Amino acid sequence: MTAKISNLDKLSGPVTEAGRCLLFLLRMLAGVRFSGQQILSVLQQVYLIGARSLVIIMICGFFVGMVLSLQAINALEQFGASDQVSLLVGKSLFRELGPVLTALLFAGRAGTSVTAEIGLMKATNQLEAMELMAIDPVQRIALPRFAAGAISVPLLTAMFSAMAILGSVVFSIGVMGLDAGIFWSKLQTGVYFQKDFVGGMWKSLVFGGTVSLIAVYFGYSAKPTGAGVGTATTNTVVLSSVLILIFDFIMTSFFT
Amino acid sequence: MTSASAATPVIKIRDLVYRRGERTILDGVDIDIPRGKVVAFMGPSGVGKTTILRLISGQLRPDAGSIEINGQVVSAMSRRELHQFRRNIGVLLQDGALFTDLTVFENIATPVREHTKLPEALVRRLVMSKLSAVGLGGIEERMPHELSGGMARRVAFARAVVLDPDIMLYDEPMTGLDPIAVSTIRTLMRETNDALGQTSIVVTHNVSQVRRFADYCYILASAKIVGEGPPDELTASTEPSVDQFMNGKVEGPIPFHYQSPDAPWGLLD
Question: What ipTM was assigned to the predicted interfaces of this complex?
Answer without folding.
Answer: 0.79
